[in-house]
Amino acid sequence: MSLKKKTIKWLNKNATSLSDKTILITGANSGIGFKTAEVCLFLGARVIMACRNKERAEEAKKALINEYPQADISILTLDLASFSSIDAFANEIIENKIDINIFVNNAGVFHRPGKKTANGLEEVIGVNYFGVYYLAKKLLPYFESLDHEVDFVTTISMIYKFAKKINYNDFFYDKKYKNIAVYARSKLCLAKLSYYLSQKYKNSNIRIFMTHPGISMTPLGINAYGKIVGNMAKAIKWMFNSPEKSSLSLIYALSHNVSAGTIVGPTKLFGGWGYPKINKTSKKAKTGAEELIEFTEKIIKERI
Ligand SMILES: NC(=O)c1ccc[n+]([C@@H]2O[C@H](COP(=O)([O-])OP(=O)(O)OC[C@H]3O[C@@H](n4cnc5c(N)ncnc54)[C@H](OP(=O)(O)O)[C@@H]3O)[C@@H](O)[C@H]2O)c1
User: Fold this and answer.
1) Does the global pTM surpass 0.70?
2) Domain residue ranges in the chain
3) Is 56 in the pocket of ligand 1 (CB under 6 A)?
4) Which residue among 85, 103, 109 is best mutated to probe the pocket of ligand 1, counting the most ligand atoms within 8 A of its Cβ?
5) How many C-alpha atoms does 261 have within 13 Å on its Cβ side?
6) DSSP class of residue 268?
7) Fold annotation for 18-303
8) CB of 119 closer than 6 A to ligand 1?
9) Per-residue pLDDT tens for 161-180?
């Protein structure tokens, strides 16, 4: 582990201290979420890891404590593929008045043909979009009640720009599963939701914005297509952003005090590579949320 010299140099130049902040990161046991936790600890934050698997979370915590023995790290259970797990997670935060300054919706999945959430939704859209929607609805009123500012950050992907116009008659690609298209739709929905919420909460204590990591060879991509493709992906991972570099999008956004609705991430190679910068929030993200939310509410009602 331990951060690379060039990351520390970048942090010294670009980052502000997080020593008075508590940051909750979903999916903090792996990939970009894990590196985000590490970078935030380096900057002095307290970290809450919200993970679906207790063992994997404990293992990741152990690795972080090994590097930062004084670190304040706790673990909460969250399975975004289950509305009842999200309910329990949100209730735990609200009932125990857990104080959070930065909430990062990082967890996500890719390529799950035939897989469904506990509530019977296609898993990629179910976890990446419905999970975050349901969680936001539960937690934003609580964050609004806190007497300090809260950042509510969502990890999207630049693939959202290439997503097809949403077809509400085949929202989950039931007719023909198209891996990339399903993932792109999940991230387009997230971008629309995040931008909509960023405007809704603009005059409150909650600042809502988005980050994207570029392309990074994490378990999400490496494990998606089996061993052979996974090994090929590992062999060329140096060509892409490392998870560590990808985690800097959040740090850039926090340190540059970006405004609500902003997207921060690499801009080279169509957003696939490089250090983070402020991106243009496209019309695709800025429009169509009302119809999407109406549809989402209908689906949730049917599934609970
Ligand atoms: N890697 C890229 O090139 C890339 C590009 C654009 C955007 N992103 C986004 O970046 C984020 C992080 O992905 P990554 O690349 O770091 O992948 P990763 O290493 O596979 O990490 C994904 C994390 O999400 C967690 N997760 C998956 N399903 C979950 C569920 N149902 N409930 C709670 N947590 C769940 C995973 O937990 P387990 O370890 O238990 O599976 C893991 O901790 C994702 O939102 C992804 O879409 C990644």
Assistant:
1) yes
2) 18-303
3) yes
4) 109
5) 18
6) H
7) Rossmann fold (3.40.50)
8) no
9) 999 999 999 999 999 999 99
